[in-house]
User: Which sequence fits this backbone?
């Protein structure tokens, strides 16, 4: 990451032209959370909220049409319509690792470059995935509730957990995050296998082209893939049933990769053993039924949220903008896949 | 573990003498939790609770004095007095890895063999240690509470966590469990160092002979040592202050290794960053002040409690009794240290 960190004196000023205009579809909360200002001296950040016009009318203003880049975050879409109406835009930077809010096909068609959070979050997300898996198997959050409500002293010993070592864990999506999850699982003595669009030549874990078959051969699944048309509701009722009554699912990808309604029903009925969920289909709303279950751990989409990763992310966002407008390669370009 | 598992037909009966008498100081909950009977066909288990006499008087009966072995658990002491009054006892088996409830010096003096849980629990305990560390740093249990009480949808984004990777973690006690903790920490990109009675020749982690010095050089401590006179309140106010405002302590050893009162005060005052605690000084009582803190995770002494480890433990207990009374080596003898 050192390559895009600012040196003490900051990078040389971008000469020969006025500061490039960056449309802030949403002020990235990462900067605010760290009390870190945007580099207003080197870019002109345009905030639709500062205009009295409705967003749709705002897009038609000369000001909006002067934008050369868009900075956005997870959940704030960059649609084909926006891109068509802002023909000056040549770069989209998102603070997320996921890209499902950006019309990548339209970007590609228009020659708009896209930069993402890249690998900034991989370790954090993998750490939380393992934390959620341990928590579900060993009932950590449930045990914490047990102690806090006074049940340990009044009701005696707490329920038995299940051992992580020896478990067959399937990693769904063996990208940057999935590989980090697999590495950690090995240290716990788990047997790792995976499902992915294509077999990876550089790993020796068993590959299953079919996620249902993976689930049949696993005690737990960790969802690490991105959300797209192919992965939407990929973890359906049949996959969850294949995982079984003792099976555990961990999701640090996107909520809609799992058919949430079916998952909730199976958890309530005891047809699925447990779940550790950082993401949900309709955030921040969590299905009411889950709130009463002791075999689920509910996390408010915090997989990427550490002080360290936000700081790295802010460096990366600014670094990508600076690189692009200095005609240098993006630090974290989104690869065509 | 296979060596002490029963074959289908069971081991050959112990011939030439009546079944050895085993004093059950406490029925090991492990068997009950798994609905598994004790091997009453091969041993005569003597339960003090079956006698109308007070325990002290019971020890004077011929029945008690016929005991050749004692089976006990954590928290049920085997004192010098008991051993002196039951001169026929040649073996003490405990279901725990910790040995602080057994007068080892008296056992040694009397030539009484001692068998413990050995390595049965090491993986489980190390897994929970890592789970607690991730939970404190990434606020998993606190996040789960945040979701369950509806705060995510009403109050918005949850607090930032702290990254595990890159943290300097000190392992206090690099025995079987400590080594497993260290191995897992490495997979998360942590820098491991340790404190132990003696420097271990077989590891390359930096060694600190002084636990205060270790704390000064670490972001987190994981307590993995046994409780004895030397380690009682070893983690005192000074050590905790050296760990600091961002520092995290995880205890899966015994509660009294930490000066709990001081720890609680420092946590409340914000002088210590957080704590993941599976053990407490006065179990099952947990200091009231901790119940209100979001930077602590409270676990009801479950580190060893998985279905898998209890099953292995039951095999080991029976295996140790059978080995001893067949004049074979114990499966998990306690080594003189």
Assistant:
């Amino acid at each position: 990451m050192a390559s895009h960190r600012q040196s003490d004196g900051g990078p040389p000023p971008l000469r020969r032209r006025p500061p490039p205009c960056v449309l802030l579809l949403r002020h990235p909360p990462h900067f605010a959370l760290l009390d870190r200002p945007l580099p207003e001296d080197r870019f002109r950040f345009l905030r639709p909220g500062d205009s009295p016009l409705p967003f749709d009318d705002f897009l038609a203003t000369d000001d909006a049409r002067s934008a050369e880049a868009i900075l956005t975050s997870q959940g704030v879409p960059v649609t084909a319509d926006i891109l068509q109406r802002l023909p000056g835009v040549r770069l989209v930077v998102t603070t997320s690792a996921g890209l499902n809010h950006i019309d990548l096909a339209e970007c590609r068609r228009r020659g708009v470059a896209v930069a993402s959070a890249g690998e900034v979050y991989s370790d954090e997300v993998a750490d939380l995935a393992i934390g959620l898996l341990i928590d579900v198997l060993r009932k950590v959050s449930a045990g914490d509730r047990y102690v806090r409500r006074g049940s340990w002293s009044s009701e005696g010993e707490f329920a038995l957990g299940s051992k992580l070592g020896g478990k067959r864990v399937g990693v769904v999506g063996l990208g940057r995050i999935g590989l980090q999850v697999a590495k950690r699982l090995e240290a716990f003595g788990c047997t790792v296998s995976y499902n992915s669009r294509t077999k990876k030549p550089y790993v020796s874990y068993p590959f299953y082209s079919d996620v249902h078959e993976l689930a049949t051969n696993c005690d737990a699944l960790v969802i690490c893939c991105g959300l797209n048309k192919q992965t939407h509701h990929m973890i359906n009722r049949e996959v969850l049933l294949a995982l079984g009554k003792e099976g555990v699912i961990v999701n640090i990808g996107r909520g809609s990769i799992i058919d949430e309604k079916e998952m909730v029903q199976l958890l309530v009925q005891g047809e699925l053993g447990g779940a550790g969920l950082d993401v949900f289909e309709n955030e921040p709303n969590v299905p009411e039924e889950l709130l009463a279950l002791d075999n689920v751990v509910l996390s408010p989409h915090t997989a990427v949220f550490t002080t360290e990763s936000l700081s790295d992310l802010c460096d990366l966002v600014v670094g990508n903008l600076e690189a692009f407008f200095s005609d240098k390669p993006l630090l974290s370009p989104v690869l065509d896949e």
